[in-house]
What we know:
- It is a single chain.
- 40% of the residues lie in helices and 24% in strands.
- By secondary structure, the chain is α+β, with helices and mostly antiparallel strands.
- The chain has 2 domains: 40-238, Neurotransmitter-gated ion-channel ligand-binding domain (Acetylcholine Binding Protein, Chain: A, Distorted Sandwich), CATH 2.70.170.10; 240-333 and 404-443, Methane Monooxygenase Hydroxylase, Chain G, domain 1, CATH 1.20.58.
Amino acid sequence: MFCRYFFFFCLCLFLPTQRSSLGHGSSLHGRGTTSLPGFENLTMGYNKYLRPYFGGEPVQIAMSLDIASISSISESDMDYTATISLRQRWTDPRLVFHGNKSFTLDARLVELLWVPDTYIVESKRSFLHDVTVGNRLVRLFSNGTVLYALRITATVACNMDLSKYPMDTQICQLQLESWGYDENDVTFTWLRGNNSVHGMEKLRLSQYTVERYHTLVSKSQQETGSYPRLILQFELRRNVLYFILETYVPSTLLVMLSWVSFWITLDSVPARTCIGVTTVLSMTTLMIGSRSSLSKTNCFIKAMDVYLGICFSFIFGALVEYAVAHYSSSQKCAAKVPEEGPANGRTEEMEEVDITNILKNSITSCKQKISFTSIEISSDNVNCSDLTMKSHEKIKFGLRNKMHRIIGYFTIQNPANVDHYSKLLFPLFFMVVNVFYWAYYLYF
């Protein structure tokens, strides 16, 4: 009995005057100092492996984002790299303490707390910043609210449609989802709707401009359950001025340079050939250079490819135009040479043949008059097939005439007119094509 009383006396002597219950109050020690609120809960009785309200209602987690930068947007890999500050708030009744103050804990104490298992959907690579220490923040409020903030750099996939490149508008997403807790355990909400995202208005990107952004709350239905998901969707419009100065203006000037050959005479073969070949090779080099930056996206027929193809067609057409005009001119010159030489010989022969035929016809008529009575004409001696043309020969003759007539329609009578019409048709047709091109890719 004496031992029992002695043990009870010692226990009362060493017990603190006031002991905080689980999740409540701060204890006072010998010198009146206030201990860290909730610290006892982290060391005694607090189970970080169990979520708040375990077995009951789901934990409501409110999130907000600060977009520090979007450093790169890759069309070839179809992703973007962003540095964000992610802030998560939830209430844990086990960490309630008296007072109206908030306390910031060392980031290393995160290992002793329960935190949500939030991850970035479609993230290819990501890491937490740790200079000079891990960039994490834990703040406790008296009502049990926990603020957990961390700075992340992540490379996130973004499905892009490059059919209108470089006049395209891309819609990318940043999706936050719970990895293991389904909607029966946690729920995700934006802290202040669209105002939960900051920094998008201040972003300055090299090729893009942030047009608009908005937040969404969604669910991800998977085989293991339905998981909460938050979505930040933002629209990026590409700045086309750089591409106009780098690609569109040079290609247009090359097309106009190819038209200079229309003002050079057909006899200047070296000059016109040099202009045509030089512009074709320059255009080919420009096309290869424009595609080198997007070598992995050759499956897309982009707007730039269409324009460069149009310009290449006009340049090649100008070269073909000179080939046609020069060939027609040479054929016409070759046709004039035989007409000047053998034509006189033919007329002399025709005159001699006509005189001979007249003499023979006169002699024959005289002989017929002299011995008309002694000559018997028999119908058997006359061959009708020799006097009339056969039917298949008539068909061949008609077809030959029609073919000559058709060929005559496509024969260039005056090669100089080819350059004359090309001076008007090439620029006019190029302007019409440009109007349709820019109207389609800018407004449709």
